[in-house]
Amino acid sequence: MNINYDQIDINGPAPEQEPQRQQYFIAKCRNLLQIREKELGRKLTFFDQTFGCQMNFKDSEKLNGILEEIGYVPAESEDADFVYYNTCTVRENANVRVYGRLGTLKTYKKKNPDMVIAMCGCMMQEEEEAQKVRDVYKFVDIVFGTHNIFKLAELLFECLDSKRRVFDVWEKTDLIIEDLPSDRKFSFKAGVNIMFGCNNFCSYCIVPYVRGRERSRKPQDIVAEVEKLAKEGVVEIMLLGQNVNSYGKNLEEPVTFAELLRMVEQVDGIERIRFMTSHPKDLSDELIEVMASSKKICRHLHLPVQSGSSRLLKLMNRKYTKEQYLSLVDKLRAAMPDLAITTDIIVGFPGETEEDFQETLDIVRKAEYDSAFTFIYSKRSGTPAAKMEGQVPDDVVHERFDRLLKVVGEVAKEKNKRLEGRTELVLAEEIDEKDATMITGRLSNNNVVHFKADPSVIGKIVPVVLEEAKGFYYIGRLDTNG
Ligand code: SAH
Ligand code: SF4
Ligand code: F3S
């Protein structure tokens, strides 16, 4: 998609249709920016601060794509002409971090009064939070939500043109706008949205309220995007959705997630396929079959369990029991003995007793997780769990959390040891953060490997001997015979 923005008539009326309407506003912003660049004698810069999950990071790539088309260049710090915060609100501490950082922006704006500050993402979908930004953080110029990120150019134009604050948060949407620009962080791997929103309403979770109802993209659009990415040199894709296993159910012509995977597998050039997240209640036998027979689907499944207590799982509205979850794990392991399974666990859900917690420790041992993200329950207003009896005292929660971490670590270490000494294929991803002579890469099972190699291997899949297992990662050596 190469658009010649100079050919768009920016003096005519704005088109009604998307994405043409946004292309028109990109052209109008470009024009304003070019004038400003001449006045300043330099390019204008942008910076993003993104919190939360893969969905938010993917959204930021789209927002950055729009900003780059407009003519902004990336800056190294928040001392930039356009700064946006893409926020997360899944847990309370995510919010605290945002407000903590926001203060620093005010100082930059004093120095550069033309600076434009925007806030978007899940937190802005909460009326209270958007109102707080409106009333307290008056230096924030633009506020939008998760449903209208495609509108950035239009909102920015309105702000630059009127020099007024712009607020535009939609309560919900069924729109899916295709064909907008996107700026990818990595040249060789990319996330691809396959669906938006969530219909599960787990009782602790705010995501369905801030991301809206489940909407699937058409398989043709997804495959076309993957084909385009493959042509651009992408070898690994991650299909993204809050619950990928219910993909396609509400399409006019329903398609299962397993069928979608089969289609994506056909795309030449794509060597690895990942996906996230799988809800245990919807994981089908068809999916297990497709995974087991695939050469491209990675040997990794993120299968959030949340708790090992069937009693709590019911209160959480997860729709499976401990036994059902474990028999699913057995089925997966029988079909794919080398599959790595990772999970999410919440500690301190209302009413959690020591016995409930013991069930969680037990499921961690039985499921033999390769790793687990562990979270302290955070009360989110508006969710059913916020009104439940028996909120667990902080000291009890912290003590359980520490015990859980220990068990997760022990189990992961054991699992990790099993590949020691083997040669495995690794996608080389980046120069090691701590040692510039090393490269950091990932196995098919998502484990991280650090090995000595020239940066020219980045983006390639190379054989690496896993010399030493270090718990959650390996130290390896490039296998030159491989
Ligand atoms: N859609 C994914 C998860 C999205 S949120 C799924 O269903 O698996 C990522 C994780 O955050 C969840 O798996 C859960 O473990 C955690 N989480 C969500 N709400 C939370 C809350 N109120 N307190 C603590 N952790 C929470
Ligand atoms: Fe939240 Fe549950 Fe939806 Fe995941 S499936 S986003 S935990 S409501
Ligand atoms: Fe956070 Fe929104 Fe993702 S609340 S976890 S950024 S969907």
Helix/strand layout:
Elements: H1 20-40, E1 45-50, H2 54-70, E2 73-74, E3 82-87, H3 92-111, E4 116-121, H4 127-136, E5 142-144, H5 152-162, E6 166-168, E7 189-193, E8 195-196, H6 207-211, E9 215-216, H7 219-231, E10 236-240, H8 257-265, E11 272-276, H9 285-293, E12 300-302, H10 310-315, H11 322-335, E13 340-347, H12 354-367, E14 371-376, H13 394-417, E15 423-431, E16 438-443, E17 448-452, E18 461-469, E19 473-478
Parallel strand pairs: 1-2, 1-3, 3-4, 4-5, 5-6, 7-10, 10-11, 12-13, 13-14, 17-19
Antiparallel strand pairs: 8-9, 15-16, 15-18, 16-17, 18-19
This protein binds S-adenosyl-L-homocysteine, iron/sulfur cluster and FE3-S4 cluster.
Detailed description of the structure:
The chain is an alpha/beta fold. The protein is built from 13 helices and 19 strands. The protein has a 6-stranded parallel beta sheet with strand order 2-1-3-4-5-6, with helices on both faces. A hairpin with a 4-residue loop joins strand 16 (438-443) and strand 17 (448-452). It is globular and about 65 Å long. It binds S-adenosyl-L-homocysteine, iron/sulfur cluster (SF4) and FE3-S4 cluster. Iron/sulfur cluster binds at residues 198, 200-202, 205, 207-208, 242-243, 279. Residues 90-91, 204-205, 207, 242-243, 277, 279, 304, 306, 344, 346, 375, 377-378, 380 line the site of S-adenosyl-L-homocysteine.
Summarize the structure.
This protein is 36% helix and 20% strand. It is built from 13 helices and 19 strands.
